[in-house]
Amino acid sequence: MLAIGRLLKIMNQPAPTAKRPAALGFIFITIFIDVLGLGIIIPVLPKLLMMLGNINNSTATQYSGYLTFAYASMQFLFSPILGNLSDKYGRRPILLGSLLGFGIDYVFMAFAPTIWWLFVGRIIAGITGASNTTATAYIADVSTGENRAANFGLVGAATGLGFILGIGLGGYLGAIHIKMPFIIAAALALLNAVYGYFVLPESLKPENRRPFEWKGANPVVSLRRLGMFPAITGLVSAFTLVYIAQKAIESVLPFFLVEKFNWSLNSISSLGIFIGALLITIQGFLIRIIIPKIGQERSIVSGLLFYGVGLALIAFASKGWMMYLYMIPYCLGGISGPALQGIITSQVPANEQGGLQGALTSLVSVTTIIGPLLMTSLFSHFTNRNLSAIYFPGAPYLAGAVLMFISTIIAVRNFKKGSLLADKKSA
Question: Are 66 and 115 in contact (CB under 8 A)?
């Protein structure tokens, strides 16, 4: 632990004075690259697994699920550790160290000689990918009640854009060479680490720092920490269901498009780019208008309803072009995330933000373990005529819609209790 502390102090050498917009831009890029790495491997992973393991598509799908499990498990274990380290040493050294590790991981995966080396790479990615914890804590440090939700819109935009564009770019780059997506992602991560060293200022004031405690870095204890804030219990429950429901899109979409509409890899990539453009418009710009106008509570409820409607429509889509149309209400659901995050973080003291974000990221990691297994199992069952009398590829999306509507009910009941301390109209 002492050696880690020394390394973090070295990496925390002060950067030149930077304006806040530049710092927020860097955070946007950091989260974008983190999530890009997860999305970019989705379209190329089946082919890569079949090539490295000399296996068929069915077996490759099983390995894909195991790789997701390995990645999410490491995020679950290490997110609270990095979050608590950032509360002691500051956000800057954790972010830079995570970016450096992420870049090395992509180089590692690009040149993996066998399928088992991919597991090592995914484990490394799960550990270093927990920088999302510190990035969101950084935004909480520099945000106020007036712009908190809008700044968290950057997180939503970067997350959605990185994941969906990752799918799009992965398809196009993978068609050129199967390893190219990993090489591009490695270059972006390493260049961003160098750029951040020169422009990223520290956001956590010395008086707001706290000692590192291994008890607080325990992922189970970290999750239990959420219980210290009863005002947000209902919203955290809604948060959990939302992330599980979203795995219907994140884990199943390429398989659904091939199964239902026989789309090519390039067609899937084109839809990914379209969705990315929607997310930029909605979460990067529209949110800054909508949330101040209707308030955080209404933004949350409206967004969850949009999510549910979008997933239900996708479940019953009968033509390929409908996917473009139905993704619009689904992406509009993104207005709920920043408002939800804004209210939750407003209930927690400044010196607990790293721990809170670590707990929330651990929670997301749990949903990443549960969600993909649930959604891919539903898809597999209802597309296998030997197992099910009902052929319904849209089953995961219908299940996701149900979860979204349940989360809406939970959020509404939480607001009716009137227990939140945040300014409900702030954004």
Answer: no
Q: What is the DSSP letter of 283?
A: I
90 neighbors 209 (Cβ within 8 angstroms): yes
**Residue at token pair 């967004």:** 303
pTM score: 0.69
Q: Are 146 and 426 in contact (CB under 8 A)?
A: yes
Half-sphere exposure of 303 (CA within 13 A, CB side): 30
* Alpha helices in 262-352, H assignment, sequence order: 265-281, 287-294, 296-315, 322-332, 336-346
For residues 396 and 252, the answer to whether their CB atoms sit within 8 Å is: yes
Q: 216: which 2 tokens?
A: 């607080």
pLDDT, one tens digit per residue, over 295-332 is 878 888 999 999 999 999 999 999 999 999 999 999 99
> What is the DSSP code (8-state) at residue 335?
G
Whether residue 89 contacts residue 9, with contact meaning beta carbons closer than 8 Å, is answered with: yes
- In one-letter notation, the amino acid at residue 247 is K
- What's the pLDDT score for residue 24? 72
How many Å apart are CA 65 and CA 71, to the nearest integer?
10
- What the chain holds in terms of domains, given with CATH numbers, is 20-416 (1.20.1250.20)
The answer to whether 169 and 181 are in contact (CB under 8 A) is: yes
Question: Which residue in the block uniquely carries the two structure tokens 């619009």?
Answer: 328
Q: Which two tokens stand for residue 24?
A: 């927020």
Taking residues 361-368, what's their average pLDDT? 76
Separation of alpha carbons 50 and 251, rounded Å? 18
Q: How many whole angstroms separate alpha carbon 12 and alpha carbon 352?
A: 20
